[in-house]
Structures are given as structure tokens and as C-alpha cells.
Amino acid sequence: MADDGMLLNFSIPDSGILNKPVFKGGTWRDRRTAKKAADNWHNKASGRPGGAAGPKQPSSANRTELGERTRRASRSPVHEEPAERQVKRPRVSGEFRPSARQQAEEADFRPQSEANVTKKPGEKQSMSKGGRQIVSSLFSYNPASTTKPAANAEVEDDAPIEPSNAPLTSDLDTFTSLGLSTPLAAHLLNKMDLKAPTAIQKAAISQLIKDDSDAFVQAETGSGKTLAYLLPIVQRLMELSTNMKKSKVDEAVQRNSGLFAIILAPTRELSKQIATVLENLLRCAHWLVAGTVIGGEKKKSEKARLRKGLNILVATPGRLVDHLEHTEALDVSNVRWLVLDEGDRLMELGFEQEIQKIIGNLNNRMKAKKDEASQIPGLPNRRTTVLCSATMKMDVERLGQISLKDAVHIRPDPAAADEKPGDNQDGRTFFAPAQLKQSYAVVAPKLRLVTLISFLKRSFARKGSVMKAIVFLSCADSVDFHFDILTSELEGGAHRTKEVKEVEEGENKQPDAIFPKSSKSGKAQQSDPTKLTITRAVSSVLSPKTHSVRTYRLHGSLQQSIRTATLSQYAKDSEPALLLATDVASRGLDVPNVDLVIEFDPAFAREDHLHRIGRTARAGRDGRACIFLMPGCEEGYVDVLKSDRKDSEAGVHIARQGAEEILKKGLITSGVQKDKNAYMDKATDLQLAVERWALASPARLESARRAYQSHVRAYATHVAPERKYFDIKQLHLGHLAKAFALRERPSGMKVPGLRTGAGRESKAPAKVRGISGPDQAKSRKADLELPEDIEAEAAKMRKAVRAREKFMRHSGMADEFNLG
Ligand SMILES: Nc1ncnc2c1ncn2[C@@H]1O[C@H](COP(=O)(O)OP(=O)(O)OP(=O)(O)O)[C@@H](O)[C@H]1O
Questions:
Q1: Bridge-partner residues for 550, per DSSP?
Q2: Which of 147, 307, 444, 474 fits a disulfide with 329 by CB distance 3.0 to 4.6 angstroms?
């Protein structure tokens, strides 16, 4: 993306040389309003009497807003276009080419000295001294898109697609036909509403029930992998119990009969989710007892639980190692099933060492007890290890080497089962569910925020069309910033003052907070994200008149208890609900009825993207996913989206949406509009409201800046093969700032907690200083205070992120990129 056309808010010189604009067209009332406003502004800028601020300059915020307001006030159905207003606009392209009328309007209300500047494409922006652009309009200077919608998009969109992760429909495919006992199958049907197995369940259950071989289970998101390994274990333990009864060793298996199975998961959330499914399952075998050791509670309570006895244990690797080393009561000599769930994530988070320790410990204890006569008839002689992963990358192969011996590869499609971990290094064995409808929205950086809001407004407009949606963002700061915007009253006027007051007093304004009380003040919350206590609030911006939409936030910097409660409330919410989240919510989480996933910030790697969109379209249900891409190199990512689907070679259709279309649908709600550009006014109003909101308090402004900087730094950490699509050097930093409600240029930002980098010598952006070529890129980095060698810095950051993730995971905290 080029840098020219970056219109930002520069300070007006003390000399106040601006000429007054001439107002023509419109009704006399329009002209009077516009003239009055411009006079006021002119007086303020030049320090003349009559300007309330005297010699003080108006803030850039007020100037910009005034310019916008004045411009809109001058609009009229019959608008004359005087000759002197025919200013040629450079680099206006794509869907937002302003009409001649809009160009004239913009020219009208720019200072005269600038309005007379004619700029041709490719030409440097020449500006007369003192005459400077003051308004960054949403709809001009946006980069051109390189993609086009497919010709028969709508027809293809409605074509029914056979779900790829649904329960099987043949009468022959029942749980009993796979070897599960009648009571267990009846429990699945009557209590858990599960009528038939999915393809991966069919393959895994029939294998694991009859055989003690190790297994590598691989299937797409939402295909029921959890039950695929839990059901055979429960079935085998029920059989053990029957054996014991028959041989009159004991009544049946009881909690103190021994620990037979351990399930390891990478995060506490996932462990809890697995434990909940297991609990439901064990309601038909109440003598079997399951429990968790996942941290987040006192070790003493976990020890007490282990002492009382458990038959199945769900654990995180770090905590289990701790108990293996320090809890005598934990006897693992009878463990005959070990499951490593989300294997790729376990490796990514650096749990290799812990897993090695666990396996070594299990082997030693089993060996030590081998010679003793088993008290449990039917207990297998060897331990079965099951590794579950959606992907088959190198690190999964490594985990396989550590944990598996002569493993059987179990896949839903028996033809693909011959592939071995590592056979396909580019991860192309991992696909999105076939029924998931995917689209991409091409949105210029300046329009990102208003387009996101419009998209969500439209999605939640009719109650029931979307019940649950998830928006993925790149970092925790950005989640907090967007949460605050969506849960605030945006319009100016009466409540604006109230809002400011509340924030300044440290009160949090959300009307419907679920975790409202903490001794910490709102100010403390603002500066320390781990102190945040409010994670749910009604979104006044998104709620239509008929119903309310609740917004939730989730990221790794929140306290564990708050994360758990937030997730559980979101999952249970029976009203329309939106979750703003980082990648902490991307893996394995199973929230019912998620209809829509929006990747507002694209994932850092294709696998993460597939896990994110896999939160919808689960177990055969419908789902939609949309990714926001910026015009230019990001649009190349569409090829990656196409490869998400198994049938991609058949030319699968991925729908394209333009920002214009989204804005129209989301912002123009009442019937036919005479003015086809009415959506532009609405979008501008919305943008101004957001900017006003941010300017109303220093805390908000700081949060916007922090979000902006964290976002840009996160952008630098896309994986190497995908950096051609997400190239930080192509990022238009000035335009992007607008999507964070910032009116000021990025340079000189001081954000507490963030390192400052090189070059702060010049205050004017590169283009204005007449710098181009490599120097321009250099200068742009300096504008943002980014380091000179962004590539090296990005590599360093990626390494640090991994180390940080590992550290955070071990201490039970964040597990995603949380900058700042
Ligand atoms: N046989 C079945 N019939 C209907 N629904 C099922 C069946 N098995 C599992 N489900 C449901 O499918 C959903 C997804 O299951 P699960 O979380 O185990 O998927 P997964 O393959 O582990 O997904 P991910 O890779 O995203 O973790 C759950 O809500 C579960 O209740």
C-alpha cells in the first residue's frame, strides 16, 4: 500500500492564515449553519475574539470533527458544483470513489490554500506552507481491491453441502454396532441426545475397544474426537467392573480400586470441558469416579481428591508432573490408558519435557508392579497411548516418537489412514468442515472499525438469525478496546458527559456486568488488564430496538476464575451474544450454537485460522465464517482460504463481500433510500461518534493507542510463509490508526509499558516531508517508533511469544499473544 494520500490531522500554524471558505448551494439554513461553524473554527484557529478558546488552537479532534460536521451540514438535495471546486482527487480507487458532489464538498471545506492544490496520481503531495489537510475522510484515498466477486456467487452460496463432521446416517451405524454396551448406548441416546456416531467415532471406537495398540487419532474440528477416545475407555472400565463382580474380587470398580486412565490437555479450559463430558458419560456408571488436577485451585484440595481415589484423571501436564513428584497418594501403576489431547498444541506450548517425564514415570511404576499379582482381573498388560490432533505437523510426529509405539493411524476416511505423521509437512491434511460457509470481506484500513460494527449490527438485527458469534482479534489490548467501544453509548450529548465522569471516577459504566465487584477501581483496571473484572455487558451499539445483544471478552490476561466464568456464561447465554477473543478461544472449545466466526484480525498461521473457524459448523451443524482482509497483498490470502476445503480443487467458491455492501446492509435499515450514498453519511457519523468517545477520556485514548500499537506489533508475527500476505511494510499505519478511533498521527505516541524504538526526529509523516522509496518505509517505521530492522525484531518477538506462552501456561495464565 502506498503512503500517499495519507490525510491526517496536522496542527494549524499559529499565524492562522486560513482563508474562509465560500458556501454555495443547499438551503439558506444549511449555508448559515455551515458558515457559522466555519467562522467559529476560523476564529478559534486564528485566535480572534469570538473564538471561545481565544488564542488557543482547537484540538485536532475538534477541528476534524468540525470539518466533517460542517461538510455534512452543507449537503443538500440540490447541490451546485462551482467550477473552482473541481479538484482532482489522487489515488481514489476501488469501491469508494467519491462522487463529484462529495469531492466538491470536501474541497469546499478544506482550507482554501489546500483546496487549490491539484494532485495527479503518482505525484508527491504538494502543500503550500501552512495550508494543510485537516480531515481524514473515510471514503477517500482508500487502496484499490484486486479481487472480484465470483460470477455465480449467490447460487453457489445457497447450494446444500453434505456436512463432513456430522453423525452418520446409515441404520447400520449405531453405537451398539461398534461394540458399546446397551446401557452405555442407551445413556448416549436418552441422556445425551446422541443417536449415532460420527465417522471418527466409528473408526476410533471399533479400534480401541478391541485392541490395545497405540493410536493416533486425527480428524477435523467439531467431529467429536473427545467422545471418540472417552467412550472406549469408559466401555473398557465398565467391562473391568463386570469382571471384578464375576470373580468376586470386589463389588465393582470403585474410586479406590485404582487410577486406570489419564487424559492430558494443554489448557485448563479444555481440561474442564473434557471433564464435563466425562462426568455426563459416567452418570450411567456412577461407581466410576473422574477428577481433575489442572491448577487454579489450592494444591491441597487436589491432593485430597487424589487421596480419596479416582479412576480417570483429566490433567494439564505441568500440574500432573508436580503431583507425580510431590503427592504420594497418586499411584499410577494401574494406568492403562493415556490420552494426549490437542497434541499439536501440547507441543507448541512446550510441554515436551513434561510429557516425557510423565511417560517415564508411568513406565517405571508399571514395571515396578508388574510382578505383583494383579488384583484386577482383565486389566490389560500394556498401556495404550492415544494421541489426538487435528494437524499432522512435524512436532506432532515428535510427540508420536516420544509417546507412541507401533501406533495405528485412525482417521474418519479409512482411505487416508495410511498416511503417517510427518508425511504432509504443509499441514494440508487439515481442512475446514465442508458445510462451513466461508467468505472474506475486503475492507480498507480506515473503514475497518465501522465495517465491523456494521457487519455485527446486520448479523444481530433479526433475533435468532445469529445467536452466538465470535470475533477473533490479534491481541488482548485490542479485545479490551473493542469491548469498551461496543459496550458504550456512542452518541454525543447528555450521556457523553456522564460517561466521562464515570470513567474518571473509576466507575465502570457497563450496565450488566457479571463480575462487577472487586476492590480495585476502574482506573486500576485500565492500567492492569489482569485486574479486569467486567467481561460481559449489553452492547448498546449492536442491540436493535427489539432485543439486546450481550458482548463478552476473553483473553489470556484475565484471571483464570474470570475466564472460566465468562466462557461458561457465554456458552449458557440464551440471548444473542458476541464474544470478542484472542486465540485463547480458538482451540478445542466447544460452545453450542456458534453461528458466526469473524476473523477481524487474520490468524498468525493457517492452522490457527482453521481452529478458529472450527468453533462453528460443529457436529454437522451449519456455520458461517468471514475473514477481514485489506486491499492489496492481504487479498492473496484468498488462495489459502480456498485450500481450507478438501474439495478446493473443484474450484470451491469462497464468497467475497465489499465494505460498501456491508456498510449499506448494516447501517441503512429503513426501506428505500433516495440518496445512494446515505451509507457514507451514516458511516461517517458512526466513525465520528467513536472518535468522540475515545477523545472523551484520557484512559480511553490511552487504551486506543495501546490497542493500535499492540495490533501493529502483533501483525509482524505472522508465520514466515504467510508474511507475503501480511507484510508489515505494506501496512498503512496512518489509515489504520483511524480504525482505532485515533485522529492523531502515530508518531510520538507514548504508551506506558511499551518500549520505544528508533527515530523520532521528525514530526511530519514521510509523505508530507517529501520522502519516498526505501526512505519512506524507514520513515514510516520511525513514525510508529518501530525498530529499524522490523524483520529481525519480528523474529525476536515470535521467539519471545513462544517463551512467554510457555511461561504463562505453566503459571496458568495467558496463552496467547498479549502485547504490552
Ligand atoms: N455422535 C454425535 N452426535 C451428535 N453430536 C456429537 C456427537 N459426538 C459429539 N458430538 C458433539 O459435537 C461437538 C464437538 O465435539 P468435540 O468437542 O469432541 O469435537 P472435536 O473433534 O474435539 O473438535 P475440536 O477439534 O474443535 O476440538 C460437541 O458439542 C459434541 O457434543
A1: 538, 577
A2: 307
Range of the domain at 370: 212-410
Is there a domain that residue 147 lies in? no
Give strand pairing partners of 314: 263, 292
Q: Which of 255, 28, 68, 161 is nearest to 689 (CA)?
A: 68
Written in H, E and C, the secondary structure of 304-343 is HHHHHCCCEEEECHHHHHHHHHHCCCCCCCCCCEEEECCH
Q: Whose CA is nearest to atom 4 of ligand 1?
A: 194
Distance of CA 478 to the CA centre of its chain: 10
Ligand 1 atom at minimal distance to the Cα of residue 219: 21
- Rounded to whole angstroms, how far apart are CA atoms 721 and 10? 38
Q: Parallel, antiparallel, or unpaired for β 623-629 and 408-410?
A: unpaired
**What are 133-179's pLDDT values in tens digits?**
344 688 988 998 887 776 655 545 566 788 999 999 888 899 999 99
| Helices (H) then strands (E): counts for the chain | 27, 15
Distance CA(252)–CA(240), nearest Å, equals 8
Query: Would you state the cell numbers that stand for residue 501, as one nine-digit string?
Result: 465522569
CB of 216 within 8 A of CB of 408? Answer: yes
CA distance 227 to 175: 11
Q: Residue 183, exposed/middle/buried by CB under 10 A (0-12, 13-18, 19+)? A: exposed
Which strands make up the sheet holding 536-538, listed edge to edge? 536-538, 550-554, 577-581, 468-472, 594-599, 623-629, 436-442, 655-658
Q: What share of the chain is helix, strand, coil (3-state, %, to 5)?
A: 45, 10, 45
ipTM over 0.95: yes
DSSP β-bridge partners for residue 623 = 436
Is residue 96 a part of any domain in this protein? no
Pairing state of beta strands 312-315 and 290-293?
parallel
Is a pLDDT exceeding 50 seen at residue 15? no
Distance CA 758, CA 395 (A): 37
**Pairing of the two strands 215-218 and 468-472:** unpaired
Ligand 1 centre distance from Cα of residue 225 (Å): 6
Residue 626 Cα, ligand 1 centroid: separation in angstroms?
22
CATH of the domain at 379: 3.40.50.300
Has residue 604 been placed in a domain? no
Residue type at 51 in one-letter notation: G
Cell of 356: 516425557
Expressed in angstroms and rounded, the spacing between residue 336 Cα and the centre of ligand 1 is: 24
Rounded to the nearest integer, the mean pLDDT of the chain is: 74
Tens-place pLDDT, residues 412-439: 876 655 555 444 444 456 788 999 999 9
The answer to the question of residue 148 being in a domain is no
In this structure, the residue with its CA closest to atom 5 of ligand 1 is 619
Contact 135, 110 (CB under 8 A): yes
CA nearest neighbour of 614 among 651, 581, 644, 658: 644
What is the mean predicted confidence (pLDDT) over 82-105? 38
- Decide if 204 contacts 217 (C-beta within 8 A): yes
CA 224 to centroid of ligand 1, rounded, Å: 3
Question: CA 628 from chain center: how many Å?
Answer: 11
Q: Are 672 and 652 in contact (CB under 8 A)?
A: no
Ligand 1 atom index nearest CA of 198: 1
Q: What's the structural domain count of the chain?
A: 1
CA–centroid distance, 420 to ligand 1, in Å, is: 24
Name the residue of 188, 227, 231 whose CB sits within 8 Å of the most ligand 1 atoms, as the mutation to test its pocket: 227
Which residues are near ligand 1 (CB < 6 Å)?
167, 194, 197-198, 201, 219, 221-227, 390, 588, 590, 614, 618-619
Q: How far is the CA of 269 from the centre of ligand 1 (A)?
A: 16
CA of 165 to the centre of ligand 1 (A): 9
Q: Residue with the nearest Cα to atom 29 of ligand 1?
A: 590
Task: Answer positive or negative: Cα dihedral of 208, 214, 220, 226.
Answer: positive
**Residue from 169, 177, 223, 607 to probe ligand 1 pocket by mutation (most atoms less than 8 Å from CB):** 223
